[in-house]
Amino acid sequence: xxxxxxxxxxxxxxxxxxxxxxxxxxxxxxxxxxxxxxxxxxxxxxxxxxxxxxxxxxxxxxxxxxxxxxxxxxxxxxxxxxxxxxxxxxxxxxxxxxxxxxxxxxxxxxxxxxxxxxxxxxxxxxxxxxxxxxxxxxxxxxxxxxxxxxxxxxxxxxxxxxxxxxxxxxxxxxxxxxxxxxxxxxxxxxxxxxxxxxxxxxxxxxxxxxxxxxxxxxxxxxxxxxxxxxxxxxxxxxxxxxxxxxxxxxxxxxxxxxxxxxxxxxxxxxxxxxxxxxxxxxxxxxxxxxxxxxxxxxxxxxxxxxxxxxxxxxxxxxxxxxxxxxxxxxxxxxxxxxxxxxxxxxxxxxxxxxxxxxxxxxxx
Length: 364
Ligand SMILES: *Cc1c(COP(=O)(O)O)cnc(C)c1O
What we know:
Helix content is about 40%, strand content about 15%. The chain is α/β, with parallel strands linked by helices. It folds into 2 domains: about 10-250, 3-Layer(aba) Sandwich (Aspartate Aminotransferase, domain 2), CATH 3.40.640.10; about 255-350, Aspartate Aminotransferase, domain 1. The strands form 2 sheets. Strands 1-7-6-5-4-2-3 form a 7-stranded mixed β-sheet, sandwiched between helices. A 4-stranded antiparallel β-sheet has the order 8-9-11-10. A hairpin with a 7-residue loop joins β8 and β9 (about 290-295). The longest helix is centred in the last third of the chain and has 21 residues, at about 255-275. It is globular, with a radius of gyration of 22 Å. Bound molecules: pyridoxal-5'-phosphate.
């Protein structure tokens, strides 16, 4: 029972089959093949507009290259303090931007508030030589805490960014999970709400290794082809990236996979809350459950080989902070999480039944 992340699952059968199909014949190299062209066309349809899309193999490259097109070395990128770009990418955004500064801001359950961003910008007057110049705002959807910004919340944030001329980047490593949870359109969750550049994740939700950097304003993408090549993310057999993404997008497959993961998280939430003393750190909104467990439950689960990560309590609301003997943990479900795994977790976490009859004791 592995709930450490959604990248512990393999790839969907449909994505794998598409790779086999793409294997035959010859194709032009370096992303000039027919499948890559089809990906861009398919994304244009899904996002209901003209756009420029660049395939890469992982989210770190996607985020870092996206930001390198939005912030010069002397620029600053405003983001949440616990965002993946600030906390999990080993300085890759700083490296690819050539030194732009990431400014981590606070926010409950990893969500930024417009007022927090506005206040930070106010403390950084334009053209002051004391600060890196704010150039971009990066938000994560779904967030690192599994929480979700509504389309109105995204629009409110991008409005603040826009008022200072900042570009807005969205880290969509779990884009599909957020989208199906909100039930809105991809356009509404992005460019219609003011997002300029999107890291469109696909790996965690069923690809082997494929993400797309999407520019809703093609004019902002002029450097991207060169930057991607220099970064070593222009694959000579680019058709294999495209084949994954096409199968992922085909016929709503990506949405089905995310719906499964979210539904599994809902069941997991219910199973965890059925265990004595377990409560949520914040509401579950996508495919991750952040639960505060008493030590005894944690021990039982670990003894039964259930795995999951301990999480930073920094962004918990004050009222849900763990008491001594309690810890915040993250449990993530994937497109492949089964009901059996969740039921096994529930059984493992239950208190031992008190042996009430000799028959039962012998059977045990
Ligand atoms: C997983 C993840 C990424 C991408 O990480 P890679 O390991 O580089 O593919 C980016 N952002 C968030 C929020 C993630 O959870």
